[in-house]
Design goal:
By secondary structure, the chain is α/β, with parallel strands linked by helices. Helices cover 31% and strands 26% of the residues. The protein contains 12 helices and 23 strands. The longest helix is centred in the N-terminal third of the chain and has 17 residues. It is globular and about 65 Å long.
Length: 417
């Protein structure tokens, strides 16, 4: 006989935080504050409700919602049920949303009122949706949809004890394709959890941190901030949408220490009329990702924000490099080196690996990369490079240069990140 244990997955950590730090603030939005015990309870209700509908491993459940704490409890509840979460980008067209819902084989969908209003006429065309599988947070036409809060509150708040395999599919995140159906990037529970740990370490989170999420919760960038809170049991402040004035005010009000943003947001924050070094003095670390943080803006951010500025180059498919402050001097244009458990090589046009000091296509390996593009074996095969030793690598489509010290510089970003 031996001791056996599966390492806790992201939703398991919510259970533990709810047990050991029940009254600590977990998620805060403009109108509501949820403790870890509260979000553990409400996510249990979501999981039990989905389980009663027959939704579990491999079943897709979509979220089309504006940022709010309810988004998080639904997300965690889907994971507790062992299902596959489909977080959809609110900025795409109604037609694109319908195509993605259909491609994912969506069984149930959660929407905020505005998103239900725009999508209600299209949901009937999603053949895989269960008849009672449309939930709306806010008032709704209950002939066609169910009141989310009323449904949630009618479910058992106790842990259903549903076993979730770390090798089961966890989410499908659709890329920002411009034609046809965007590619659905499928991750597994265990790999997603490992990605959370690496992001948390890279972002320098700790028990006393307070995160701020100013990006739509459908985004992988937003999940970086969320993962920091899930891993460390710290507070995450969620903004409904990004406004630089409101961002500065939130940092000052909640004494925010950590966040992840895109470079454009950083520039707008620095230009906000209420920005001052005093207002943002609580900041300890900001991760910049999604697009290049050019040297001039990076230096300005370092000087005026007064905290660690960490540039992250990454793929939703699952790979990250970071340039940490201690290694930034003299190489501000670099995106750094791979995080733990990741590796990359540079290939020439004939797919031959190149040594340091050269430029070529970036190919990557990671312990937390995707398993496949959903329903797209052609795209999965096209993205794969197999080296002479039989090892698989993921083609990024990006051109980079690796200097003599192993630091990566992005030359041309061909792929939507």
């Amino acid at each position: 006989m031996q001791f056996e244990i599966q390492p806790p997955l992201l939703h398991d950590l919510v259970r533990l935080h709810g047990r050991w730090y029940p009254d600590k603030a977990a998620m805060i939005d403009e109108s509501k504050r949820l403790t870890w015990s509260a979000i553990d309870r409400t996510s249990n209700q979501v999981a039990n409700g989905l389980h009663a509908m027959g939704i579990g491993r491999g079943d897709s459940v979509a979220i089309i919602m504006a940022n709010c704490v309810e988004y998080i409890e639904i997300l965690i509840g889907i994971w507790k049920a062992g299902a596959v979460v489909i977080p959809l980008n609110l900025s795409v067209s109604d037609e694109a949303l319908e195509l993605m819902l259909d491609d994912a084989g969506t069984r149930a969908v959660f929407l905020t009122l505005a998103e239900y209003s725009r999508m209600s006429g299209r949901l009937a065309s999603v053949n895989t949706l269960l008849p009672n599988g449309i939930f709306v947070y806010g008032a709704a036409d209950f002939a066609k949809a169910r009141d989310y809060e009323a449904w949630r509150d009618g479910q058992n708040p106790l842990d259903a004890g549903i076993a979730v395999d770390e090798n089961a599919p966890c989410n499908i995140i659709y890329s920002s394709g411009t034609t046809g159906i965007p590619k659905g990037i499928k991750h597994l529970y265990g790999r997603r959890t490992r990605a959370g740990y690496e992001l948390t370490l890279a972002g320098r989170y700790h028990f006393g941190a307070v995160g701020l999420c100013p990006i739509g919760l459908y985004s992988n960038i937003a999940w970086a901030t969320l993962f920091g809170s899930l891993i460390t049991g710290t507070t995450c402040v969620i903004q409904r949408s990004f406004d630089p004035h409101a961002w500065v005010s939130a940092v000052e009000k909640y004494r925010v220490t950590h966040t992840m943003m895109v470079p454009l947001q950083i520039r707008k924050v620095l230009e906000a009329p209420n920005f001052s070094t005093t207002a943002v003095s609580s900041l300890q670390a900001i991760i910049s990702g999604g697009s290049p943080l050019f040297s001039e803006l990076k230096q300005r951010a370092i000087t005026e924000l007064g905290c660690a500025i960490i540039e992250l180059y990454g793929l939703t498919e699952g790979f990250m490099t970071t340039l940490q402050p201690e290694e930034a001097e003299g190489r501000l244009a670099s995106v750094g080196k791979p995080v733990r458990g990741s590796d990359y090589i540079i290939l020439d046009p004939e797919d031959q690996p190149l040594g340091w000091g050269n430029s070529g296509e970036i190919c990557v390996r990671s312990i937390h990369w995707m398993t496949e593009y959903h329903n797209r074996p052609d795209a999965t095969a096209e993205a794969m490079y197999i080296d002479k030793d039989g090892r698989q690598w993921l083609r990024t489509g990006d051109i980079g240069r690796i200097d003599e010290d192993g630091y990566l510089f992005i030359i041309d970003r061909k792929k939507d990140m």
